[in-house]
Amino acid sequence: MQRMDVTTVAPEAYHAVLGLEKYARSNVDHTVYELVKIRASMLNGCAFCVDMHTTDALAAGESSRRLFALAAWRDAPFFTERERAALALTDAVTRLGEHGVPDEVWDEAAKVWSEKELADLIVAIATINVWNRISVTTRKQPPTQE
Questions:
Q1: What is the pLDDT of residues 47-89, one digit of tens each?
Q2: CA-based R_g, the chain, Å
Q3: For the chain, how many helices (H) and strands (E)?
Q4: Which of 76, 95, 87 is nearest to 113 (CA)?
Q5: Which partner from 62, 79, 127, 136 sits 20 to 30 angstroms from 86, CA to CA?
Q6: Which of 86, 111, 83 is nearest to 101 (CA)?
Q7: How far out from the chain centre does Cα 143 lie?
Q8: pTM for the predicted model, two decimal places
Q9: Is residue 132 one of the residues assigned to a domain?
Q10: Which 8-state DSSP code applies to residue 74?
């Protein structure tokens, strides 16, 4: 059962995070954006966000095969070099407490993303991590009906 609805209890906070969301959505490649959101949500165990973003990705034409492969993306041949760099960065940023962001992860991302693209990607990864933490903490549930 959901503990609270942050949108009604702290609407200003919700709108602040929504501002980051809108910025990131407008500045990161849509396909990469959804992959990053789904991967971080998987790592954070956020059922609400996994459901929402896989549904959005499928509606935008993403293949179910690639979505399923996100759980084991390092071993799956379905992702481009840029997507792989974004996913590696997502894993590192989402798991900051384990090792920070290793130089090799940063260097690979910096090879295939411009500095501005990389900055926008970091904002996107940070934003989905904020959403995940809000949703997991408040036990926000995905809709049970499609």
A1: 999 999 999 999 999 999 999 999 999 999 999 999 999 999 9
A2: 15
A3: 9, 0
A4: 87
A5: 136
A6: 86
A7: 19
A8: 0.94
A9: yes
A10: G
Q: Is residue 146 part of a domain?
A: no
Between CA 16 and CA 134 the distance in angstroms is: 13
Tokens 């949500």 belong to 41
- For residue 119, being part of any structural domain is answered with yes
- Domain hosting 45: range is 16-138
Of 90, 127, 92, 85, nearest to 110 by C-alpha is: 85
Question: What is the number of residues in the chain?
Answer: 146
Can you list the pairs that 23-28 forms with residues at least 24 positions away whose Cβ atoms lie under 8 Å? Answer: 23/120, 23/123, 24/120, 24/123, 24/124, 24/127, 25/124, 27/120, 27/123, 27/124, 28/117, 28/120, 28/121, 28/124
d(C-alpha 112, C-alpha 106), whole Å: 10
Q: Which amino acid is at 137?
A: T
CATH code of the domain covering residue 63: 1.20.1290.10
Answer whether residue 41 is part of any domain. yes
